[in-house]
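Practice set, problem 2.
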Amino acid sequence: MAAIAGFGLAALAVAPAEAKPAQCFTTDDGHYPCNFRGLDKAGSFRISAPGYPTFTIEIESAGVAWAFADYGTRNVALPGPYLRARDDRACWENPDTGSRICAW
């Protein structure tokens, strides 16, 4: 029974956070109000807003992530790794394409 209770607590510890209002920026869309949802303890997150693609940043290791864009009809892996920006830690950028995704 204790193992089951422990499993339940562990599941709660990694449960996604509720979406919170935020300000977002993407290279293609500029600045816009959005919802921010943390996905795990590593810092992965998802941003969404009506009329914009939903972006997911999945942390691979410290300062390195993979990005995805959900356009409603298809979910696309964005090319290359995204690195945490040195000038603004709320931003992730692709050094090859110059694209940037931020959430404050």
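Problem 2, part (b): a different protein.
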Amino acid sequence: MHDSLNKKEIENLLPHREPMLLIDELLNIKKLFSATAIVNVKKDSFFVQGHFPGEPVMPGVLIVEAFGQAAAALTAHGLDKSTYENKLVFLMSVEKARFRNPVIPNCRLELNIEAIRSHGKVWKYKGEAFVDQKKMADAQWSATIVDRK
């Protein structure tokens, strides 16, 4: 297994599609442990026009969503394909989410995520988001793997 995924490879692991597939790359993958996700926040990203007109900022909930997508991709990439086939990863809880600086379009948002523990189908993660080494946000969250209907 290589230690990075491009957008097409991420699409093969996650059910998300544009415009809700937020992560563009998954780098520095340590199987089922950690990775860095890249979100290229663009001036034409779907949220820019309405959040906020003239002063665009990436919504904090979308940063949390990107954390979740990165964690799901890390987990799906690390699990045996037969274990993950026909499954979805659902966010269960978000804890200790802090938004420290606004994420402005035309930046590369780097999400450093780590799986803290897993118990059965429930996984707990933590992550920090950076732009140019400046911390923008951090959070902890839990997710579960469920069968597709």
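Answer key, part (b): Residues 60-78 form the longest helix (19 residues). The chain has one domain: 7-147.
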